[in-house]
Design brief:
The chain is α/β, with parallel strands linked by helices and 370 residues long. It folds into two domains: 3-128, Cytidine Deaminase, domain 2 (3-Layer(aba) Sandwich); 139-324, Dihydrofolate Reductase, subunit A, CATH 3.40.430. The chain is 25% helix and 22% strand. The strands form three sheets. Strands 10-9-8-11-6-12-15-14 form an eight-stranded mixed sheet. A five-stranded mixed sheet has the order 2-1-3-4-5, sandwiched between helices. Strands 7-13 form a two-stranded antiparallel ribbon. Helix 4 (110-117) links the parallel strand 4 (95-100) and strand 5 (121-124). Helix 3 (84-90) runs parallel beside helix 4. The model is unreliable at 332-368 (pLDDT under 50). It binds NADP nicotinamide-adenine-dinucleotide phosphate (NAP). NADP nicotinamide-adenine-dinucleotide phosphate binds next to strand 6, strand 7, strand 8, helix 8 and helix 10. NADP nicotinamide-adenine-dinucleotide phosphate is lined by residues 153-154, 161-162, 166, 168, 171, 192-196, 199-200, 219-220, 235, 238, 256-261, 264, 289, 293.
């Protein structure tokens, strides 16, 4: 296998366990034995073996003299599982190819050094931009202590999120809503404003897809009998909220609106990734609720500018992912848009939010609350 091919396979393996590893990183590992046999692994749920250990267990003695490709630097420390760097050495792996170094202070560079000291050939940086993007929530958490913030809104094509009477269910169709549940499933916490709780009484659980329910956070107060309960009711600075969630091991938080909350997160520059589900719907007036409430950019020179990282058709709707403008030096090539006449396949970049290829439940399965 060549390095790129093997690392892309390791990235796919990691993507498959995205929803089940937090607060640990989702990592993939591919091992090629000297006889050409391939063995694979991905991170188990917390407490279980890491990707390298899973692949080594599958390979057994066949690993001796082989090559391992792993998306993140193998850990050097004993946590709930033995150190992966030592496991690779003990198994007699000859060459280790790593996507990126682990920024965690307890691990950074140490695993690589241990491998080198043991005479293992080590290479770092294969498909690094794609791995960095895939692990963005983990990397942000370990370097800042705060979770990766995804702001999600369902909107009409004229940028409205609710009718003047407050009704907003539903602007988008079943496919977009199923995708939004997948986004919830890969988030460790969801945040919603008290205004949305009062109007919509959402439950904010994961339904229609596999995954554990996230921690539910209400900005302001929620009635004791609100469906979102039990929830963490938070009043205070949003930065303090993010610090507290980071301390609880939340790697990704999904902000689900409404417009007041969206405006607050956006204005404070706290959003790392925007996910907009845009429906072919027009409210057609300025009295419908906007996507962001409160003061916006006062002049064109001050508008927030980002880059589309994915454009995905979902039923009749579109999912638009935006990231702050990427550094062209480190950004991977992200396909955006769809060629005229191209097949109805989802188009994704290697964004941290992966889920697009979902079995679509019939719309009537989704006629419940959020
Ligand atoms: N299309 C969509 O994707 C979508 C998503 C969600 C909601 N919605 C719609 O949006 C409407 C509700 O939006 P909204 O703007 O009225 O309410 P909201 O953004 O859901 O909630 C705003 C409220 O949150 C509380 N809050 C506490 N701390 C806050 C902070 N730091 N920043 C901001 N808010 C804080 C305040 O509650 P108090 O007033 O109690 O002080 C504030 O009034 C509903 O019609 C709902 O259907 C649409």
């Amino acid at each position: 296998m060549n390095d790129t091919e093997a690392m892309l396979q390791a990235i796919d393996l990691a993507a498959a366990v995205r929803a089940t590893t937090a607060p640990n990183p989702w990592v993939g590992c591919v091992i090629e034995a000297p006889d050409g046999r391939i063995f694979t692994g991905a991170t188990s749920p917390p407490g279980g073996p890491h990707a390298e250990a899973v692949a080594l267990a599958a390979a057994g003695e066949a690993a001796r003299g082989g090559t391992a490709w792993v998306t993140l630097e193998p850990c050097p420390h004993v946590g709930r599982t033995p150190p992966c760097a030592d496991a690779l050495i003990d198994a007699g792996i000859r060459r280790v190819v790593v996507g990126i170094e682990d920024p965690d202070p307890a691990a950074s560079g140490v695993g690589l050094q241990r491998l080198r000291d043991a005479g293992v050939e080590v290479e770092v940086g294969v498909e690094a931009p794609a791995v960095r993007l895939q692990l963005a929530p983990y990397l942000k958490h370990r370097t800042t202590g705060r979770p990766w913030v995804v702001l999600k809104l369902g909107a009409s094509v004229d940028g409205r999120t609710a009718a003047p009477d407050g009704s907003s269910q539903w602007i988008t169709g079943g496919a977009a809503r199923a995708d939004a549940h997948q986004l919830r499933a890969v988030s460790d916490a969801v945040v919603v404003g008290a205004g949305t709780v009062r109007v919509d009484d959402p439950s904010l659980t994961v339904r229609h897809v596999e995954g554990a329910d996230p921690l539910r956070v209400v900005l302001g107060r929620a009635a004791p009998d609100a469906k979102v309960q039990p929830a963490l009711e938070f009043e205070g600075e949003l930065t303090d909220l993010l610090d507290q969630l980071g301390q609880r091991g939340v790697l990704q938080v999904l902000v689900e609106g409404g417009a007041t909350v969206a405006g607050a997160f956006h204005r404070e520059g706290l959003v790392d990734q925007y996910v907009f589900y845009v429906a072919p719907v027009i409210f057609g007036g300025s009295d419908a609720r906007p996507m962001f409430a409160g003061p916006g950019a006062p002049t064109i020179a001050d508008v927030w500018r980002g880059a589309f990282s994915a454009v995905v058709p979902l039923g009749a709707d579109l999912r638009l992912d935006l990231l702050p403008a990427l550094d062209p030096a480190t950004a991977p090539a992200l396909p955006v848009g769809r060629a005229a006449g191209a097949a109805e396949e989802p188009i994704t970049g290697s964004t941290p939010a992966v889920p697009v290829d979902l079995p679509l439940p019939a719309d009537d399965h989704l006629q419940e609350d959020r």
